[in-house]
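Q: Second attempt. The first request was missing the SMILES, so the protein and pyridoxal-5'-phosphate are both included now.
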Amino acid sequence: MFPYKTSLKLNKNLKEPLYLQLANQFILLIREGKLLPGTKLVGSRTLADLLQVHRKTVVACYEELLLQGWVESIPKKGTFVNKNLPLIQKVTLTNTTKTSKRKNSGFNFYENNRLPEKNTEKREGVMYINDGTSDTRLTPTKEIARIYRKIASKKSVHAFLDYNSTHGNVKLREVLALYLNNSRGLKINKENILITRGSQMGVWLSSQLLLKESDIIVVGETNYSSADITFQYQKAQIKRVSVDENGLVIDQIEKLCKKQPIKAVYVTSHHHHPTTVTLSAERRIHLLNLAQKHNFAIIEDDYDYDFNYNHAPILPLASHDSSENVIYIGSVCKTVAPVFRVGYLVASEDFVNEAAKLRGYVDRQGDALLELTFAEFIKSGDLDRHIRKLMKIYLQRRDLFCKLLKNELGDYFQFEVPKGGMAIWVQLNKQYSWSEVAKEARKHQLEIGEWQRYDLANKKHNAIRIGFATYNDKEIKLLIEKLKQTFKSIKKSAY
Ligand SMILES: Cc1ncc(COP(=O)(O)O)c(C=O)c1O
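A: Got both inputs this time. The predicted holo structure:
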């Protein structure tokens, strides 16, 4: 007889009922090929005696197996392992295969070398240079948690737990329409808004709907690398135009339009990514006129609208768009924290509806409770209060960072003090390279990260973005010190 007694181990201290423990172990024995299809199982009375359990436990176990289709019951004959089960290929389990990582799949899939890996694992004790993200220690987590808890404990919450519209929560769409109309001069209603999981989803959806192989999209030279990669993934043709102190050079776009039809222009108008410059008023109007004349879309990625230190925020292109050419994209990921994946895509209703349909196939819907939380957070004025608080702190950090960078490291870098945003565009003097600086910095526990991504057009401008908002005063001083030490050791090794 099969060694049931030694093969089946029950634990009365577990929460899992005994009959289920038993059923799951039978399933494992069948899957591992130890009980083959057609094998007759021992009678319930005998098994109960062997295992010292009540017979009802074994009967319940067999019923469970029957229900799941692992066994079949033949009247007057007994219970058998279902003979119609397909033979499961035996895998030899050694001690190591159980614990080692599953590295390679047993099937072929399409890898895409256009997608670089995002390495986000952080090591203790190391400082990381980022490209302009918020200080998550300032995130109003208590306030957000309070609102979330209040919403989640309402009786009416059930409606929001269900499958819902792929457009996002209606209340948030209404609140956002009002908020964006008031703060950014848009003229929209909720039908013009799709809630996304952040700006990147907006860029991706737009790219999917606008671009097919060889279609032309115009971007700045240089450009936000994730946007570039998103467009390249569609096999679109990327045409680059220069960026000067007034942003994208629109005259160059006009010239391109005369040569061939373009499908879209991607623009970070408020603070160009990565250089931080603002698109001038004149160029904004020029670009809008071109879009209207040549019927192309403008993807306006307004990723850090809220942070302006020298002037009031400049209204987005979308606020002057009278011919529905602009797709306006933003999120709370920069102002509140990257972890809250709540963003928006604003466009004409037909485009929003198509984007909503498409979104449903990669992400069925957003997180309605989180969306409701943000609706309340925005409506109550908490978001604006939070931004005002951050502005004061980040302004002070910007000034300290720029002062130290100039005074302590002026021999190595050139930069303009950014008027807004959370990063400085720092150009390294030509006798140094970021690859050697990054390598040396690592020895001083400073990680510069993917500096190559700022030059996807291979312009050799030798500049990267350095975020200043994430660090407090002490950390800013430490970061500058680490950079100083880095250059000291580079110079030493040059002699
Ligand atoms: C220019 C730009 N667009 C989009 C994003 C993505 O933002 P989100 O976190 O809202 O997806 C970023 C993030 O760094 C960004 O810098």
